[in-house]
Amino acid sequence: MQEFSEKIQLLLDEVWHVIVGQDSLKRDIVISMLAGGHILLEGAPGLAKTRTVNSFSEALKLWFQRIQFTPDLLPSDLVGAKIYDPDVKEFSIKKWPIFANFVLADEINRAPSKVQSALLEAMEEKQVTIWDTTFKLDTPFIVLATQNPLEQEGTFHLPEAQLDRFLLKTIIDYPTPHEEKKILMWALNREEYKIKKIFWKKDIIEFKKQIENVELSESIYEYICRIILTSRDNSKYPEIVYWGSPRASLALMRCSKVLAAMQWRNFVLPEDIKEMAFPVLRHRIILSYEAMAEAISPDDMIQKILNDVTVS
Hints:
By secondary structure, this protein is of the alpha/beta class.
């Protein structure tokens, strides 16, 4: 675990050279990558979402592609299509951006349902189908989707089934005054920092194997179950109309194991569960209109559940 933690810290330090702050975003990208899941990013424009993802891909030398989702986007624009070549008089398959390792789906909620369905197959099955041929996607494959919380005109509501496929949802906030000042100072430096490669793709696969060795005690298993089951108690929490599925329990377990490994431990603590409960559950807990009208947020409900559930 020491070698693992040191290399992950080297990765975070390398990205720090070009991205000021956004510690939770950096942490969650690493956790998503090592837990084998996808991440939904919500934040206002200009908060370095694209640059952060691109910086990680450079540090890992992984293939990065950005897709701008628009209402007129077609599934073939995402996965590829059969193209007729008049020179050889035959069709050939052209693969499009989904075949990258890091796929940034910018403003994902602006695309219609047909595009979302094509993306859903890639996210869940790690494969895409073009006409009658199915292609396996490379490992690691991570979809990092962004949503703009400010402008909702011309957007489509993401179905709950698709939201549940995202391992984490990270809220990206504005920088602190100290971080804002550092951004201004760095902007005066004309020299662009060239990110160094930290480790190889094979190291990511090896790290995933090491994470499997992180242990959970019986009480931690029960703690995870009680958190998820308590959230489904509609009589106790009438504000919640849709709650986490067993996929939420699995996500909380996997993410907590990665977080423990990042902190030089081969065992999970209740504090790991509490820390990861927010990004794991905030997009899986759907609140009633009455709760939203009272300005109650999913994070408020998660904190309330954590306060009510004790560790045995």
